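Request: How about a record?
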Amino acid sequence: LVAKDGLTFDEFRGKLKENILRSRLLDIKIKSKIVITKDDIKAYYESHKSDYMPKKKYHLLNIIKKVDSYADEDEKHEAMLVMEKIYAELIEGRLFEEVGKDYSELPSIETSDLGTFKFDELSQQVQDAIKDLKQKEFTKTLENDLGYQIIYIKEIEIKPGKSLDEAYAEIQEIIFNNVTNEKFKLWIEQLRQQSYIKIIK
């Protein structure tokens, strides 16, 4: 371990002594004086409520008809007609993967697995399109810089949120660590100003 960290034995021993000293000083000078109240924990929970709300992740598939940026209106209209046909087949109940596979043989049409995303990681356009959709549902045809696309929600993963009681111990530790670090920095600064740093050998 000493060799791996590039330290001599004396340097390692000094670092270990420093860590032990820091831990003792923290316990005596700082940690023992920290008091965290229920109100502190409640206030933190309320101000970070989004961290403790249920989280959704969307596994998205995509069928896209690519259209060149210099395409004329006729070409765009033709591409839109193809996507409307795809949309109609999906409405009839055909599986998204099957439709995508059939149409991917046509020029400029691609079917892909986009991956899994948190809602706020998606573009505003996609957020608006999927916000009211359920698992196994799909959007209407969307227009973007690449062309026209239909997005399918393969799966929605839901991570449960936490109530104040469930998050209590976690928040208590977060506040404690934050206060400890702040007080330690302040204490060291005060010692420096007093030019009184005692080194224990």
